[in-house]
């Protein structure tokens, strides 16, 4: 009997000791990140059958368990990857928003200052300081464009470095998870859970979800498998499959994510890499950085191209036609037709070698140019032009495909791009088209002499002067304007017959106008025969110019439109037209001015920043809530552990008392035999 009681006391003593040890372990790890409190699971051993019934044999500790909820832990991982995504995205959006939306040093104020200088020249076209100020403002505007472009390029370069570092961190975490998987499998083969190792692995999985969204699958042997993308295994048991940051075959300047498996490298589409820092970096690049860079380039392209067209339609103080005010890469299609080159066309690095076809092209319509990049592909039968921003594809019809491979005709897309292939490429070949790439970096102010600013109109209307027979009627002549400039780059700035003198002679011709005046036209191309009715206030157009006449001419009166005289230094017709470009909607399908188009990009980036701010705060609260829910189950509570210490201490003392009593009983039995 004493022996039985002694054994029961020892079992209680051991159980209480394990309880004290476990409680002490909990208290020691109260501040350990990811630690789950542990408890002992104890039970009564199988009793001993005696003649008096089943006698208990004390207590046994079956296991030391961690207090853990798989679903609450997974909720923390999900909240972590979303919170990290929003915080990373916000940090980068804030940087780009500060660049493009600067109210004092941004592009918009520089545009306003430049057009203010244009208006000053219009006010006093012969004033040298005003002309010099216009050239200085143009230089300032160019510098502003290039500084902002450089800052965005620096953002892209830094982004590549961040992507590389993040991928390296993901691989390191994955390797640690795989290593712990192996240790856990070995440890768990003993039949008992390795609690501290399981906590370490859970913490690594949480840290991994800070970098990229993962999906976990627990296995019966205690290990877990981790997957990314649409099911690519990152950790499978104790084996890892690494990710890589590699140059994109379509655009080597941008890094893409590759999946390395059995010596093979598979490129993952950016859309499959979601969540965490890595997903945020890729989305920021595709949705914000590309938009900002292309919008900035498009604003510059619209300004430089249309400003050049209008400037070349004017006359400078030397009596010469205006030259290109801005310099940028162009392709000459004929006399007076210099069109903007496409920024960059890059064959895919996976194309057939040697290349069988070369793709080239130019920007045909400024108003249709978008902020997207494109990809031209050939499957052996059909050509397709894909929009890399929204993923849409347009398949060329037979006529368009023929034009594409028949230079110089080319195929003109709905985005205003004219494309030509020297010959049909090999099946599967693709070409990346970045219409606006590097445009700003190569822009320059092409006019250095203030006298070369073409402020005057190229043609002027003159009336006869003495000693010739002068006009005797009340004819009022408004100076002619050249035809309005368009966003179509293949249109010439001036009509080839612009300088052919055209004379309007007024006559009384009852057969044409019974009670008014008519006029005849000489010098028009094509020629005009017969007399035409005159109507006061109506506009008359010939040879690429339009002129308004008013008043009542007398029979024999005339007016001639001819090349403007060199002495017409007070003429401001063309510089007024240049000034009107500021409020002319030539971008975004002719719905936006230069500043409005740029402003839309600024508003989009601002909206994205605001959205990321709100979502970041919301996700941070969700993460805190998820962690609190997990901690309410798994975290160490010092008050509870203090109570456990007392409980196990008392159990220890009581078990010691049982042993002490058993010892006394044993002594009494021994003494009975003396």
TrEMBL record:
Residue span(s) of domain Flagellar hook-associated protein 1 D2-like: 348-435
Major subcellular location class: other
Stretches assigned to the Flagellar basal body rod protein N-terminal domain: 8-35
KW RNA-binding (keyword) present: no
Subcellular location: Bacterial flagellum; Secreted
Residue ranges occupied by any Flagellar hook-associated protein FlgK helical domain in the UniProt entry: 93-326
Domain of life: Bacteria
Entry protein name: Flagellar hook-associated protein 1
Species this protein is from: Deefgea salmonis
């Amino acid at each position: 009997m004493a022996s039985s009681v002694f054994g029961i006391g020892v079992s209680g003593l051991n159980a209480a000791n394990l309880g004290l040890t476990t409680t002490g372990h909990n208290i020691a790890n109260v501040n350990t990140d990811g630690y789950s409190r542990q408890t002992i699971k104890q039970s009564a051993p199988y009793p001993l059958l005696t003649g008096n019934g089943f006698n208990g044999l004390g207590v046994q500790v079956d296991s030391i368990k961690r207090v853990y909820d798989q679903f609450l832990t997974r909720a923390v991982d999900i909240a972590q990857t979303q919170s990290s995504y929003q915080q990373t995205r916000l940090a980068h959006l804030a940087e780009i928003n500060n660049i493009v939306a600067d109210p004092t040093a941004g592009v918009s104020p520089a545009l306003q200052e430049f057009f203010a200088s244009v208006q000053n020249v219009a006010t006093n076209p012969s004033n040298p300081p005003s002309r010099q100020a216009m050239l200085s403002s143009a230089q300032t505007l160019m510098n502003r464009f290039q500084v902002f472009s450089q800052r965005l390029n620096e953002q892209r370069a830094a982004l590549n470095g961040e992507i590389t570092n993040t991928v390296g961190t993901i691989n390191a975490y994955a390797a640690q998870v795989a290593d712990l998987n192996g240790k856990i499998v070995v440890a768990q083969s003993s039949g008992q859970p390795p609690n501290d190792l399981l906590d370490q692995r859970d913490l690594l999985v949480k840290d991994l979800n800070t970098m990229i969204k993962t999906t976990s699958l627990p296995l019966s042997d205690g290990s877990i498998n981790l997957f990314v993308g649409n099911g690519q295994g990152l950790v499978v048991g104790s084996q890892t499959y690494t990710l890589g940051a590699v140059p994109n075959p379509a655009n080597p300047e941008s890094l893409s994510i590759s999946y390395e498996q059995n010596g093979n490298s598979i490129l993952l589409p950016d859309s499959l890499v979601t969540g965490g820092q890595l997903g945020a970096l890729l989305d920021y690049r595709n949705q914000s950085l590309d938009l900002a860079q292309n919008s900035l380039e498009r604003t510059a392209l619209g300004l430089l191209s249309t400003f050049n067209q209008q400037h070349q339609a004017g006359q400078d103080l030397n009596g010469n036609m205006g030259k290109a005010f801005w310099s940028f890469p162009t392709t000459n299609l004929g006399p007076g037709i210099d069109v903007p080159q496409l920024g960059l066309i890059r064959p895919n690095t996976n194309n057939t070698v040697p290349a069988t076809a070369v793709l080239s092209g130019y920007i045909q319509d400024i108003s249709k140019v978008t902020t997207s990049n494109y990809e031209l592909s050939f499957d052996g039968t059909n050509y397709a032009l894909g929009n890399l921003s929204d993923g849409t594809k347009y398949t060329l019809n037979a006529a368009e495909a023929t034009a594409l491979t028949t230079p110089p005709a080319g195929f003109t897309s709905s985005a205003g791009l004219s494309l030509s292939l020297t010959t049909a490429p090999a099946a599967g070949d693709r070409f990346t088209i970045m219409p606006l790439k590097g445009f700003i970096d190569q822009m320059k102010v092409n006019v250095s002499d203030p006298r070369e600013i073409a402020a005057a109109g190229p043609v002027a209307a003159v009336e006869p002067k003495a000693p010739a027979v002068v006009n005797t009627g009340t004819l009022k002549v408004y100076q002619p304007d050249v035809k309005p400039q368009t966003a179509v780059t293949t249109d010439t700035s001036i009509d080839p017959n612009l300088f052919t003198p055209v004379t309007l002679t007024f006559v009384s011709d009852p057969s044409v106008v019974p009670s008014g005046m008519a006029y005849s036209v000489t010098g028009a191309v094509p020629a005009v025969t017969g007399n035409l009715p005159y109507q006061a206030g109506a506009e008359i157009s010939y040879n690429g110019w339009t002129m308004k006449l008013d008043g009542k001419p007398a029979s024999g009166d005339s007016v001639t439109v001819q090349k403007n005289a060199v002495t017409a230094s007070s003429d401001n017709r063309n510089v007024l037209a240049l000034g009107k470009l500021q409020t002319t909607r030539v971008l975004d399908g002719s719905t936006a001015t230069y500043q409005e188009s740029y402003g839309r990009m600024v508003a989009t980036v601002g909206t994205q920043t605001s959205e990321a701010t709100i979502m970041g705060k919301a996700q941070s609260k969700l993460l805190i809530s998820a962690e609190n829910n997990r901690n309410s189950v798994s975290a160490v509570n010092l008050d509870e552990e203090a109570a456990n210490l007392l409980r196990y201490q008392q159990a220890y003392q009581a078990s010691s008392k049982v042993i002490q009593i058993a010892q006394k009983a044993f002594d009494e039995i021994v003494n009975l035999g003396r």
